[in-house]
């Protein structure tokens, strides 16, 4: 079985990403942003977290009326005094929701819209994203070519031997005296040929090896805490940006600080419901013990949650997996926010990884390939896309004239040295 | 008609051919091997060993790299501050205050480290202007030679005091031991209102105590003259923008006088030209040496320092004052005074006279002149007196006498350093020894601090709270941008503690302002803006008292006449009074006039050079060894190298103060220059910054001075600068444009004879680079560039440009991405008859048809779709072909590991290519110092070429911000560091495709002055210049363009050999 090329997966993802992006209407997008900024720290859509799951919210009696939701969210304590249902929620979850006095009815509509959309999407498309199966398999062809070349080379060798033997026979027949033919392993032509082939092949592998120095695809170090992305981002569907929020604004994606972990883990003190966890050596991991490591750093005692002083927390030292050389400028904000690239495009199926490993090569060729193919969120005449690109008059004209149908990162200078090296 | 000649140094002037020959190469030496001659064969590592090492090290490196991935850690916050995003800079408004300079700035803080300062554009005083020194002050924060903890004297050494509590106790008991003798607080000019209150409270605690302000270079002449003329001991505000005629009597108001950052902005307004109606202010300068301001003057007249009073008096007499005109022997000077006087008369109410003299009498006369020409109420504003110079020389002289007689019990020193910058340092030293308790609040072990009993280190201003009231009602704030790096404490806290108040200054400051402003919200707003300005009052006048004029005139009349030679002290824009002498960026900043770095020297005239037997031949100019002379005035003497400068007064020599500092300030100050403050003298009221009788002797020895001007030669291309007079510009407005049009005609002719006129496409064999979206462009107005060098330091800070040290500058290895070329314009026959000096900031021109790009064998330098000539450091293999082929000489090669960036320690061994100065290897490579580096810009390692990138990291950041918000880029969002630093707003930058942008409009509105440097060789630069116009009546006939015609064949000739 020949492994699939990253390109192939990437393009598959890209298609899916584009589809999703183009389908979600604008209010759902606002809803997403609102959901992530207001709700996601305590609520999930499909599961109870710090607060109840928000799936099928409108089917819970009063909540069918968005105005009621608004009233509740604007001032939960006052609402609860008159409402036994929410009082029950308090009993179940142990705390009252924080107040959102600045929320408007439009916001509530947008958030509920987003939740419904997510639920609908989940019901509609349970299959995981797969790319088109018709993509050309270059690896396979290479092997076939190699085998054919080898066979042809052997045939050529045999034919040459046959030729020399025949020549010897004919010479014998005509009584021409020639010295004994040199055996092929002492034939200088053969030796030279072999040396040349060895030089080329050896050189190829040496160069390839040298290029790979310092690269670390599939690097999967053991982290100080066995933190499972599968449990957090996969099963519990925590949005990537909840922890790696800097990716939206900054060049670095950022590793969450202890206080972000503690937002949820103040309530989640043990690992019981999820699947069993195994490390690389297939040893079973005790999730609760791993959470306890976090508590140790945070200085948190789960038996006395109210006595916790966050200012005493100590930072955790994680091991860096993705290392770019210092002369490379890479901005997450450019890719995630401006370029609308999904995290998984470069980091792989992170929702299925327990401990994270480096999915991509992070080599310049890998970057460049993507820049060659990726289409820019161009500002087309129907005024979709990023208005930043409205200044590219020439491309607008070319699109109008039908000379080009889309603009790739390459077209706007994405292959230039000083886009990344300065 | 006189013929103008443009030249940069005497070698070029006197022996152009020899100079050309010597200076032909981009890099002077064959290979930079020092002390290696003849040792190669006898070296300890012969060839075979070398090969063995080579093989071994390659193998070792491969194995080392291949074995294990080095483990790198990420340490996130324990509790992330709410508004902080790692990797995104934050900006905090604060204020640079030093020696009375008050510059509101905005500090860029990346992940908790301030790394760059910009001017605060909200300030109506500075309007975002900065200076070289304020730009460089961020490096002072990370200075490893700062005092790291409180200390007390124990014999000859200082011992650490473990805590501030202990220090407080020790000082308290020492204070108790002083008894009833008064406590004196000695500071430099203080502009902080809250500190003033702290001091008042402190003084109230100690009977008989007082506060004395002392400035190394004082303005007490002005303060006292204004007291005599107006009854107010103060300095008014000057409005250079309202003046049509500006006369400066030795005031370097664009460089170092009073508030140059403010004046540059105002002055530039009058220098910029509207082409439709070309008018500009007229600037006359009377001075003894060639100052930066003098270099920008329209007409200059020189005189001896002792004649300053006579010139002022002569001017007043010519204006009809009731004084008798003194005898002035020099005919040119005399004619000049008459001319200036008539011009002033004609522009009454629109004229301004300023004087740099520290003599009360001279300043009184200047006040009388300003009164006569109606300057008060128009160009001089008494409604806004300035606070930034308050030191009175007499007060300090009295204090010294009091100290010497044992009349001072305790002396607390903050900001003042009289042991270094007082003319009679020995007297200060002996007076200090008579004081029982001396405490210094300082950042570094300066000369005075070294003699104190206690040192309570003060925090750097970027670590402190504070305020500054530059002018009454114009307050700017300081706020910490980083937690104090060392165990330091604001000196106000110490004063509070020692006056029995247990609040620290941080709280005190906040309470002070919250009470004053009424609410915490108002305080927060003021801090956020960094400034708090009351509404500008109507321009004010004070009644002028003429009584003092007569006395002043007679005092000037009887003033001592000068001897054969006179000496004048001046300040350089880089070091000023010398407070920041430990700053390597400033030490390496070339002086605008002499282009010298890392030294002070005696500026002498060509006449004096002849007398001293200094021949101005190739050897003088080409080799850095300059003759050393001994200067003697009474008992003081000093030996200094000479630099011959045109436009000096024939019998005056000028030496910069601020050098010869203690090596305790760091490696940057070690053995750099000589202290010359001792040449000043006290005249009973004020300190005169000159010496009227010095003798000079050629010692016959030589000393190396590291100058940068002749490093790069344009191979005799004289079209580099374009300059003319206002009269000629009015007569021939299209002379520069015509040159460009003719080029287009020449190159635009197609094969069939039809003129196409597209110089851009037809002038070259290479294909044209398309710019589909943005196209960055820069315009530099040479009329608004005064040579101050703020841009050069801003570029240092923004782009991690390394400091190379004196030894490397001597070998032409300076690394400045942006340099300011200086051209003397003089009569072709008489170089001393200086017409003007042209300053031309020279940086990578980002040519659209770049000669450097075509010759790079590895395509490390190439062109971007936005018009930037890009340099990929990691691709560069160091052939230096590009630098050799660059007609502008703006590429810089890392000959050695100046930054400590090399990953292999053996590469950092500089023994073979020559030792680097300690300031590079120890000070700049220190981990604390390296905190100043901009994390968005690569730190270049040895062996690569580098050059101006148009601050591409800023452009990318601005574009990303626009993309994030999904909107087009707005004009002015992307600014280069040099543009932002410029006080004269000489630099305009932006997207040249955007028809609404400032750059597009500037180019459109100034088409008659617009030129590209050596445009005829078809480099198609993206940087244009606006020709310099000086305001004189001389008519210069435009050169016929045959010269240009010859020019264009030159590149081909060059390529042939």
Q: What's the arrangement of strands in the largest beta sheet of chain A?
A: 1-2
Please identify the structural class of chain B as seen in this structure: alpha/beta
CATH topology of the domain at 151-218 and 391-517 in chain B: Rossmann fold
**Sheet bearing the most strands of chain B, described?**
7 strands, mixed
Descriptors for this entry?
heterodimer, A: 422 residues, mainly alpha, Cytochrome Bc1 Complex, Chain D, domain 2, two-stranded antiparallel sheet, 16 helices, elongated, disordered N terminus, B: 1057 residues, alpha/beta, Rossmann fold, Dimethylsulfoxide Reductase, domain 2, Barwin-like endoglucanases, 7-stranded mixed β-sheet, 6-stranded mixed barrel, 35 helices, 43 strands, disordered C terminus
In short:
The complex is a heterodimer of chains A (422) and B (1057). Chain A is mostly helical and 422 residues long.
Structure overview:
The complex is a heterodimer of chains A (422) and B (1057). With 422 residues, chain A is mainly alpha-helical. Chain A contains 16 helices and 3 strands. Chain A has a two-stranded antiparallel ribbon with strand order 1-2. Chain A has 4 domains: 27-117, Cytochrome Bc1 Complex, Chain D, domain 2 (Orthogonal Bundle), CATH 1.10.760.10; 136-175; 229-352, no CATH class; 375-419, no CATH class. Helix content of chain B is 30%, strand content 20%. In chain B, helix 8 links the parallel strand 11 (245-249) and strand 12. Mean pLDDT of chain B is 86; it is low at 32-38 and 1041-1057. Chain B is built from 35 helices and 43 strands. With 1057 residues, chain B is α/β, with parallel strands linked by helices. Among the domains of chain B are: 151-218 and 391-517, Rossmann fold (3-Layer(aba) Sandwich); 221-386, Dimethylsulfoxide Reductase, domain 2, CATH 3.40.228.10; 559-709, Barwin-like endoglucanases; 732-750 and 757-763 and 775-785 and 951-1057, Alpha-Beta Plaits (2-Layer Sandwich). In chain B, helix 4 packs parallel to helix 26 (790-799), helix 6 (193-205) runs parallel beside helix 16 and helix 13 packs across helix 15 (425-433). The interface between A and B is large, with 60 and 54 residues. Strand 3 (318-319) of chain A pairs antiparallel with strand 2 (73-74) of chain B, so a sheet runs across the interface.
């Amino acid at each position: 079985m020949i492994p699939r090329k990253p390109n192939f997966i990437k393009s598959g993802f890209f298609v899916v990403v584009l589809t999703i992006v183009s389908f979600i209407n604008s209010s759902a997008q606002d809803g997403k942003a609102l959901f992530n900024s207001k709700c996601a720290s305590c609520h999930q859509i499909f599961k109870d977290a710090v607060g109840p799951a928000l799936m099928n919210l409108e089917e819970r009696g009063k909540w069918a009326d968005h105005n009621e939701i608004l009233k509740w969210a604007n001032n939960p304590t006052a609402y609860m005094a008159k409402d036994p249902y929410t009082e029950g929620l308090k009993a179940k979850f142990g705390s009252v929701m924080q107040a959102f006095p600045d929320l408007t009815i439009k916001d509530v509509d947008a958030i509920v819209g987003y939740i419904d959309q997510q639920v609908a999407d989940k019901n509609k498309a349970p299959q995981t994203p797969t790319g088109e199966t018709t993509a050309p398999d270059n690896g396979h062809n290479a092997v076939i070519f190699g085998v054919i070349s080898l066979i042809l080379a052997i045939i050529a060798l045999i034919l040459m031997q046959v030729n020399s033997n025949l020549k010897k026979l004919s010479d014998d027949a005509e009584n021409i005296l020639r010295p004994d033919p040199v055996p092929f392993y002492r034939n200088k032509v053969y030796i030279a040929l072999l040396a040349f082939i060895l030089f080329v092949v050896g050189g190829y592998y040496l160069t390839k090896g040298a290029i790979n120095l310092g690269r670390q695809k599939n690097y999967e170090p053991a982290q100080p805490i066995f933190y499972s992305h599968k449990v957090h981002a996969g099963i519990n569907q925590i949005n990537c940006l909840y922890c790696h929020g800097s990716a939206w604004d900054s060049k670095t994606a950022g590793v969450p600080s202890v206080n972000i972990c503690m937002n949820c883990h103040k309530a989640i003190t043990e690992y019981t419901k999820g699947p069993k966890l195994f490390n690389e050596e297939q040893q079973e991991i005790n999730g609760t013990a791993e959470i306890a490591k976090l508590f140790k750093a945070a200085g948190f005692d789960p038996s006395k949650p109210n006595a916790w002083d966050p200012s005493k927390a100590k930072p955790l030292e994680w091991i860096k997996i993705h290392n770019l050389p210092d002369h490379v400028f890479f901005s997450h904000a450019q890719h995630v926010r401006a370029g609308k690239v999904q995290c998984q495009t470069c980091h792989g199926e992170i929702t299925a990884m327990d401990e994270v490993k480096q999915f991509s090569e992070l080599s310049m060729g890998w970057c460049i390939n993507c820049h060659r193919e990726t289409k820019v969120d161009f500002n087309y005449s129907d005024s979709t896309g990023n208005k930043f690109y409205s200044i590219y008059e020439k491309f607008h004209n070319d699109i109008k004239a039908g000379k080009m149908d889309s603009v790739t990162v390459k077209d706007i200078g994405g292959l230039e040295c000083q886009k990344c090296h300065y | 008609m006189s013929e103008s000649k443009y030249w940069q140094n005497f070698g070029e002037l006197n022996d152009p051919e020899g100079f050309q020959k010597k200076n032909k190469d981009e890099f002077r030496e064959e290979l930079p091997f020092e002390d290696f001659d003849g040792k190669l064969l006898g070296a300890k590592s012969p060839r075979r060993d070398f090969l063995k090492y080579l093989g071994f090290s390659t193998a070792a490196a491969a194995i080392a790299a291949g074995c294990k991935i080095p483990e790198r850690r990420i340490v996130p916050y324990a509790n992330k501050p709410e508004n902080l995003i790692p990797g995104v800079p934050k900006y905090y408004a604060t204020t640079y205050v030093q020696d009375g300079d008050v510059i509101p700035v905005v500090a860029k803080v990346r992940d908790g480290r301030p790394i760059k300062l910009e001017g605060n554009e909200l300030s109506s005083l500075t309007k975002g202007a900065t200076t070289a020194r304020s730009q460089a002050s961020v490096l002072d924060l990370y200075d490893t030679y700062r005092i790291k903890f409180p200390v007390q004297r124990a014999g000859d050494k200082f011992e650490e005091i473990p805590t501030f509590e202990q220090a407080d106790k020790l000082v308290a008991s020492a204070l108790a031991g002083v008894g009833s003798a008064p406590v004196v607080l000695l500071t430099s000019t203080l502009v902080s209102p809250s500190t003033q209150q702290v001091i008042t409270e402190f003084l109230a605690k100690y009977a008989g105590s007082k506060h004395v302000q002392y400035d190394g270079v004082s303005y007490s002449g002005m303060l006292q003259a204004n007291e005599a003329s107006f009854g107010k001991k103060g300095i008014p505000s000057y409005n250079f923008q309202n003046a049509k005629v500006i006369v400066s009597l030795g005031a370097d108001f664009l460089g170092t006088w009073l508030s140059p950052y403010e004046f540059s902005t105002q002055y530039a307004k009058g220098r910029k030209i509207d082409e439709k109606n070309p008018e500009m202010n007229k600037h006359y300068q009377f001075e003894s040496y060639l100052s930066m301001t003098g270099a920008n003057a329209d007409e200059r007249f020189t005189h001896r320092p002792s004649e300053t009073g006579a010139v002022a008096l002569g001017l007043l007499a010519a204006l009809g004052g009731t004084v008798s005109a003194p005898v002035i022997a020099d005919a040119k000077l005399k004619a000049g005074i008459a001319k200036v006087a008539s011009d002033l008369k004609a522009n009454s109410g629109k004229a301004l006279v300023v004087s740099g003299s520290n003599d009360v009498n001279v300043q009184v006369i200047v006040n009388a002149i300003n009164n006569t020409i109606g300057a008060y109420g128009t160009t001089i504003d008494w409604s806004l007196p300035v606070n930034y110079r308050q030191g009175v020389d007499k007060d300090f002289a009295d204090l010294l006498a009091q100290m010497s007689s044992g009349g001072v019990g305790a002396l607390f020193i903050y900001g003042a350093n009289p042991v270094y910058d007082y003319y009679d340092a020995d007297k200060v030293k002996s007076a200090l020894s008579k004081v029982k308790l001396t405490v210094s609040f300082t950042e570094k072990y300066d000369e005075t601090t070294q003699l104190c009993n206690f040192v309570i280190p003060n925090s750097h201003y970027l670590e402190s709270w504070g305020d500054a009231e530059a002018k009454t009602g114009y307050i700017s704030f300081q706020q910490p941008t980083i937690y104090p790096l060392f165990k330091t404490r604001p000196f106000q806290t110490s004063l509070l503690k020692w006056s029995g108040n247990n609040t620290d200054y941080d709280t005190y400051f906040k309470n002070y302002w919250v009470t004053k402003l009424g609410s915490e919200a108002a305080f927060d707003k003021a801090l956020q803006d960094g400034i708090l300005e009351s509404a500008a009052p109507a321009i004010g006048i004070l009644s002028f008292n003429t009584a003092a004029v007569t006395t002043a005139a007679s005092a000037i009349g009887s003033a001592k006449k000068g001897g054969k030679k006179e000496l004048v002290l001046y300040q350089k824009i880089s070091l000023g009074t010398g407070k920041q002498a430990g700053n390597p960026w400033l030490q390496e900043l070339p002086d605008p006039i002499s282009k010298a770095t890392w030294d002070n020297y005696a500026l002498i005239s060509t006449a004096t050079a002849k007398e001293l037997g200094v021949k101005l031949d190739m050897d003088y100019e080409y080799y850095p060894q300059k003759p050393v002379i001994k200067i003697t005035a009474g008992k003081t003497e000093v030996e200094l190298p000479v630099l011959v400068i045109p436009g000096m007064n024939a019998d005056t020599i000028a030496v910069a103060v601020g050098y010869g500092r203690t090596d305790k300030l760091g490696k940057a100050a070690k053995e750099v220059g000589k202290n010359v403050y001792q040449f000043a003298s006290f005249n009973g009221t004020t300190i005169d910054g000159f010496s009227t009788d010095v003798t000079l002797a050629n010692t016959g020895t030589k000393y190396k001075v590291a100058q940068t001007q002749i490093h790069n030669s344009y191979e005799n291309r004289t079209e580099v600068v374009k300059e003319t007079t206002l009269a000629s510009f009015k007569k021939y407005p299209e002379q520069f444009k015509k040159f460009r049009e003719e080029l287009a005609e020449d190159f635009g002719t197609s094969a069939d004879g039809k003129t196409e006129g597209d110089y851009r496409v037809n002038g070259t064999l290479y294909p044209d680079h398309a710019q589909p979206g943005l196209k960055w462009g820069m315009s530099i107005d040479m009329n608004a560039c005064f040579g101050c060098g703020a841009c050069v330091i801003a570029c240092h800070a923004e782009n991690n440009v390394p400091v190379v040290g004196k030894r490397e500058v001597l070998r032409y290895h300076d690394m400045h991405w942006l340099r300011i070329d200086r051209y003397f314009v003089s009569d072709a026959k008489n170089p001393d008859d200086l017409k003007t000096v042209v300053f031309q900031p020279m940086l990578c021109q980002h040519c659209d048809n770049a000669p450097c790009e075509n010759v790079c064998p590895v395509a490390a330098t190439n062109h971007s779709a936005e018009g930037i000539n890009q340099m990929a450091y990691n691709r560069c293999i160091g052939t230096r072909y590009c630098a050799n082929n660059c007609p502008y000489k703006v590429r810089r090669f890392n000959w050695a590991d100046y930054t400590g960036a090399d990953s292999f320690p053996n590469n950092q061994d500089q023994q073979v290519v020559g030792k680097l100065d300690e300031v590079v290897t120890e000070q700049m490579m220190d981990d604390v110092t390296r905190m100043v580096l901009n994390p968005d810009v690569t730190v270049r390692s040895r062996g690569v070429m580098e050059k101006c990138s148009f601050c591409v990291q800023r452009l990318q950041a601005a574009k990303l911000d626009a993309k994030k918000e999904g909107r087009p880029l707005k004009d002015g969002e992307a600014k280069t560091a040099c543009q932002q630093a410029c006080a004269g707003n000489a630099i305009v930058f932006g997207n040249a495709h955007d028809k609404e942008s400032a750059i597009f409009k500037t180019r459109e509105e100034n088409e008659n002055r617009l030129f590209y440097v050596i445009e005829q060789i078809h480099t198609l630069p993206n940087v244009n210049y606006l020709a310099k116009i000086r305001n004189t009546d001389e008519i210069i006939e435009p050169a016929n363009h045959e010269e240009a015609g010859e020019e264009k064949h030159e590149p081909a000739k060059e390529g042939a050999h």
